[in-house]
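User: Thanks for the earlier help. One more: Acyl-CoA dehydrogenase. Can you show the sequence and predicted structure together?

Assistant: Of course, both are below.
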Amino acid sequence: MNALKNQCKQFANHYSTIETQVFSKEVLQQLSHNGFLGWMIPMSLGGQGKSARQMILAGESLMTHCKNFGITLSWVIHEIVTYWFIHTFGNDYQHKRFIPKLLSGEQVGALAISEPGVGPHPKHLKTQAEISESICLNGEKTYLTNGPIADLFVVIAISHIDAGRKQYSAFIVTNDAPGFHYAAPLDFPFVQTSPHGGIVLNNCIIPKENVLGEINTAYNSMVKPFREIEDTLMMGPILGGMQCQLTYLINDVYNQKNCVN
């Protein structure tokens, strides 16, 4: 725990205004420099090789020292994209191509499920993928944590319709793909330090090698478990935030008591 606290202090001390610092690629690279990326990625792939419990403790400590929920939220999402999506469902080629840049902070990761007006509900999503020699994606995604600054997106899109029932696949889309466009950033006052936005895919072409996992199974195999994983790993920053609020309250009570005396 002492080593973890020192890691957090070193990261926080890098910024003179850490409590209001907006998450960026430079912040991600500084997190990498201080050993906070690839927390659950095996050491054989360049990661930290730690457990989910250890990552929760890291999130709690990071929040306690930085007092910046936006940075910890963006960090958790980047880590989930790297571990749960790319590492768990990716093949050897995808591991070698994408994981090193995510671990170094050269690429910022984001997850693209939700769409304007419907959120993440699978019944109402419209983004489609045409699979042939390459993949052609059309649609719009929004409410994406890290969206305005991300280089790599895991996009969930309709790949087949069976008896009126939509089936989904996952695709790795980088921001240099033809037909990829950023949408305008979103203003979320409650997480101002975590950039949110959307993307537009207009005949966006990616190679077939960027299909992630098994075709037509992504919603059940990836998206549904992701909700529980996100809730679990976010407990670290939430607990750290509660500790910060408790510290503020105790200090305020102490100061008021001194004023009365």
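User: Great, one quick takeaway?

Assistant: The longest strand covers residues 134-145.
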